[in-house]
Amino acid sequence: MNPIRTKNLLMIFCFLLFMSNSKDAFRIHSNFPFNNKEVEIENLERLNSKGIDFCAVPFDGGVVFTSSRNQEDGTGLKNMINKNYFDLYYAKINSKGKFFEPNKLKGDINGKLHDGTATFSASGEMMFFTRNEEKEGGSIQLKIYTAQRVEGYWINVKELPVNVEGSSTCHPTLSADGNKIYFASDRSGGFGGMDLYVSILKDGVWGTPENLGINVNSAGNELFPFMDKSGNLYYASNDTGGQGKLDIYYAQKDGKRFKQKRNIGEPFNSPADDFGFFISENEEEGFLSSNRDGGFGSDDVYSWKLVEEPVVRKIKVMDRESGQMISEAVVMIEENSGDNDFIIVEDDKDGVYPYEVQKADKYHISIEKEGFANYNSIWQEDEFLDKEEHIIYLRKQAFTLLSGKVKGQVYKKEMENVDIELMNECTGETEYVKTKKDGSFDFNLTCGCEYIIIAKNKGFMTRTKIITKEDNPCMGGSYLKKEILMQPAPNSSFPRASIFD
Questions:
Q1: Is 99 a residue whose pLDDT tops 50?
Q2: In whole angstroms, what is the distance from residue 453 CA to residue 431 CA?
Q3: What's the maximum distance between 2 C-alpha atoms anywhere in the chain?
């Protein structure tokens, strides 16, 4: 770590080198300990300034965080050596999860030098925070203090008896029961620069701090600890082997000690500095701080949350005859069919249509492609989820030319102007023509469909012929001939109206 950055770190909260301007949220898979769940991270623009903003923790319907935005130049960009001081700010959250404009905490905090990185008792009436003192000769020392909230003001500021003269003590966090305080310090006897320590409250007295040991600490700097409800520890370290300068690590509770720390990976960590980690009680959301690319200022506050990993099923559409993939088909899926609200599924690769499955009891699948017969089917949920990939074959929309001829049954004479009805059993549609002078008629038939031909003429019995699916296969270029012989209606009081064949 270079000398300027080290000095900034010990002056209070470090990490001031990188700046960028994008504010996009992104989604990516994380590593330990979230079991490769999907994580969404978003820059909290309302909290961030062009200066340095970090270490947000929930408090009283909002968040408290540290910021340098209170500078004379109005930007918070001055170097800390030029008295770019940090203060504690509070921002309330509305019912829609949006933050109001941040304001400084009121009372006897936010003094002449730096105040920041706060943690609160379960009641919210006691705050533990870091403040620095400037000694004669220019030495800088960080200490942990407490303050009490009285009618919205933080007063009765007192030094916590875990500080050591001549060393820095900072970044406090409390255990869930409030009986342990964890913090960072560069006091003698550690493993590296800044190490993490714990002090236990017993009979109202904070005990002698203990180093958390080699499983947590390294030859580098360990900073910004946070203890979750189960006693597991999250913190930042610049130990070798990380993804960036400062990375967020996790040390699982192991009795009175901790197991070997592990880097929690992307997207929490980046090639830049990542620190100030907070995880909520439901273990599905929280905050972190970073000066990664895409930020609003220097160090920014980000939110993170776990989102349910989408279940994706792929539909492959293929030509039944050739086995070739069919691209640019219209694949429509209606969940819990009945409201005609179809989702159009786009293909990401020739003939492959990935669908992010939404929970439903059944799915109406409809596929259309010019030149092919439409596909319609209803799938049950377990049927849809059973396979990661479903293959659907479409038949070519081939046509059969029907060439018909109507003759009289007795003399085989061609009959003109006979009414011909053609009923398509696939669609329910009916077409009408009259026979030509030579008794002929023509229709285009959709292959694979059954048809009924009805011939009617005055003085003759109605004649009905069935064209079966076997008569009308999808072979391509089919030609079908049908001859209809019309029988004169008998002179009877009970004539037969129709003849079927």
A1: yes
A2: 10
A3: 132
Strands 205-206 and 210-211: unpaired
Q: Which of 233, 214, 213, 211 is nearest to 224 (CA)?
A: 233
Residue range 146-189, pLDDT digits in tens: 999 999 999 999 999 999 988 999 999 999 999 999 999 999 99
Domain with CATH 2.120.10.30 in the chain: 3-13+25-307
DSSP string, 86-149: -EEEEEEB-TTSPBPPPEEPPBS-S-SS-EEEEEE-TTSSEEEEEEEEE-TTS-EEEEEEEEEE
Average pLDDT of the segment spanning 62-81: 66
Three-class DSSP category at 267: coil
Can you tell me whether residue 53 is helix, strand or coil?
strand
CB environment 188-217: b (16+ within 10 A), e (fewer): eebbebbbbbbbeeeeeebeebebbeeebb
d(CA 42, CA 161): 38
* Alpha-carbon distance values, 21 to 108, 118, 121, 272, 274 (Å): 34, 27, 35, 15, 17
Cβ partners under 8 Å of residue 50, min gap 6: 69, 75, 76, 77, 296, 297, 298
| Phi, psi (rounded to 5 degrees) for 11 | -75, -25
- In what helix (H) or strand (E) does residue 10 lie, and over which residues does it extend? helix 3-11
What pTM, to 2 d.p., does this model score?
Answer: 0.64
- Place domain 399-500 in its CATH homologous superfamily: Carboxypeptidase-like, regulatory domain (2.60.40.1120)
The CATH classification of domain 312-394, taken from the options 2.60.40.1120, 3.40.640.10, 3.10.180.10, 3.40.47.10 = 2.60.40.1120
- pLDDT above 70 as % of the chain: 85
What is 3-13+25-307's CATH number? 2.120.10.30
pLDDT of res. 390:
93
Residues 6+ apart with CB under 8 A from 32: 250, 262, 263, 264, 265
pLDDT tens-digit series, residues 214-262: 999 999 999 999 999 999 999 999 998 777 789 999 999 998 899 999 9
As given in the structure block, the two tokens for residue 199 are 């002090």
Q: CB neighbours of 241 closer than 8 A, spacing ≥ 6?
A: 263
- First CA to last CA distance, the chain: 95
